[in-house]
Amino acid sequence: MMWQGLRDSSKSVTGCDTQQHACRKPVQKRAKLSNMLDADDILQSSYNGIRTPVCGFDRLRNSFYDVPCEDLAKRLLGKVLVRRLNDGTFIKGRIVETECYLGGEDKASHSYNGRITERSKPMYMKPGTIYVYITYGMYHCFNISSKGAGAAVLLRALEPLEGLECMQLQRQKGRKSPSSQKELRAQDLCNGPAKLCTSFSITKSSCNEQDLTTWDGMWIQEDESSDPCDIVTSHRIGIDSVGSEWASKPLRFYLLGNSSVSRRDRGREKELQEMVRHSY
Fold this sequence. Notes:
Elements: H1 2-14, H2 17-36, H3 39-45, H4 62-65, H5 69-75, E1 80-84, E2 90-101, E3 130-135, E4 139-145, E5 152-162, H6 164-172, H7 193-199, H8 204-207, E6 218-221, E7 231-234, H9 244-247, E8 252-255, H10 266-279
Family: Belongs to the DNA glycosylase MPG family.
Enzyme class: hydrolase
InterPro entries: Formyl_transferase-like_C_sf, MPG, MPG_sf
């Protein structure tokens, strides 16, 4: 619909067929590019040039990420995301909410039906590869590839642990309203996919296609101080446009009772609590 509107507009102004053809070009280019990329080639090439990190030696290794998407989404909960900025500043947050995008038949996935573009290419790279995309033309979302062609886990929320002052500064950048300059509560710094990217200075230009098992700018490690938590399973957020079948699938996971979760499902929480009570 967007491209059709653009073509109609150009016709009404210029009446020129060449202008219409120019508007159609980007669509044709994307389709051609998709056909040129091969999933197996992308996967194999992503293993080339593996380097040894110079910091973050307690990071999680390849075997942690090389599991099916749904398993990785659950495994990541309670782990600590570490971001090392260019000036040497460290920012840390506990992962408390994830969503998995399965690829293949998952209509909500950027790799639905095996589609491959330059944007979605990291979803086909080795497990543990960072996939950052931009939504609404301005917000970043941070994903991690898993086992399975085109599968990746979206990080939806973090619990801030270290570097909160830096997170506050990152969130305040570009906020023009005086009322928006007030200090945010800790649980509001990273309680959403775009918020955590802003707080952790995660952008497509700086982080996309990096390997969490080797890159010195970011990694994930165990959290020795956290206690085991119950995991709530719910539907994914903001994908109603793909239809009820896939919008309602239980592919979002979060830690029960954590205040940094972006959106609670009280019905599922009650079901989980009932199950826990009956298990004793």
